[in-house]
Design goal:
Blueprint (H helix, E strand, L loop, with lengths): L25 H14 L8 E4 L14 E4 L5 H11 L5 E6 H7 L1 H10 L4 E6 L2 E2 L5 E2 L23 H7 L4 E6 L3 H13 L4 E6 L11 H5 L2 E3 L15 H8 L6 E8 L37
Helix pairs in contact: 1-6, 3-4, 5-8
């Protein structure tokens, strides 16, 4: 792991301050992302942040780094395209549970399968907060909101279980009320060669009055804690990871659920990238006229 040199978090501050509600869990994620980049000695011009639509997207104006604000649910394919064009820079996606698992769920599933070398950070407040608190795919069954006044009918989507079963090679969960732990998870996710997914539980202090800071603090615990006086948690055990992903309620585990280090990333398997990044290649002498023959 890289150590801090002459960088500090203020290097990633923009002239704008977030407009989130006071106490929003996004503040902890915002700070953790900046801290993780400092820990890794990544300079503002050496990283691309891809933002989805939602409260998380507010960071597009508040982090001093290259950024792309995509359409709702479409942040992951944008990140994959940029990574193919320039696979030498770290790409970080931030999105909410509405965008990534509502409109964008097919992109998430296929990214898990393909293992592109990007890091996806989920702002998981279990509501559509930007549009004033409607039920999201991750809302509890029976959750009462403006869009479900009689309670949500569908069962909630499980982001951790979904990522594990669809082939993601790094799957972790943090809680925005534990900023240092979230920073550690983001650092490890960026360092991972492959698709890394970090689900961050974050209270929405305005619209989700169930999953509050006290509610989480009474329940969350680290997978690395030896709660049951048994052997140390094995991050390479896929079956155990899935079992732990189903644990929710009185006890909610945090940490790295699963990590597979030996699987090549999508970019590793592309022959076109073996001799350098596409952005550095001279394409002025390439003639593509013959390619159009198939479509004439």
């Amino acid at each position: 792991m890289a150590t801090i040199t002459n960088q500090n978090v203020s290097d990633f501050n923009s002239p704008n301050f977030p407009t989130w509600c006071p106490g929003c869990g996004n503040f902890g994620i915002w700070a953790a992302i900046k801290s993780s980049l400092v820990r890794l000695n990544i300079k503002p011009h050496e990283v691309l942040m891809v933002y989805d639509v939602g409260c998380n997207g507010n960071m597009c104006n508040t982090i001093n780094a290259y950024g792309f604000h995509g359409l709702h649910g479409r942040s992951i394919p944008i990140a994959e395209g940029v990574k193919i064009a320039n696979h030498n820079i770290p790409i970080i996606v931030t999105g909410g549970d509405g965008g990534l698992f509502g409109e964008g769920i097919s992109h998430f599933l296929n990214a898990c399968r393909g293992n592109p070398n990007i890091t996806v950070i989920l702002h998981d407040n279990q509501v559509y907060a930007l549009t004033t608190g409607q039920t999201a795919p991750t809302s509890d069954q029976g959750y009462v909101s403006k869009s479900t006044p009689l309670g949500a009918i569908e069962i909630k989507l499980n982001p951790i279980a979904l990522a594990i079963t669809q082939g993601a090679t790094f799957v972790a969960r943090g809680f925005s009320g534990r900023q240092d732990e979230v920073t550690d998870l983001i650092v490890k996710g960026i360092e991972h060669n492959g698709f890394s997914f970090v689900d961050i539980l974050q209270p929405c202090v305005t619209f989700n009055l169930v999953h509050t800071y006290p509610w989480y603090r009474e329940r969350v615990y680290s997978l690395d804690e030896n709660i049951e006086n048994t052997e140390k948690y094995d991050r390479t055990n896929l079956v155990k990871a899935y079992e732990k992903s189903l644990e929710w309620g009185d006890r909610i585990p945090l940490g790295i659920f699963y990590e597979e280090k030996d699987k090549p990333s999508y970019q590793d398997d592309l022959d076109q990238l073996k001799d350098g990044a596409l952005v550095n290649k001279n394409i002025s002498n390439i003639d593509i006229d013959s390619c159009f023959d198939d479509f004439m």
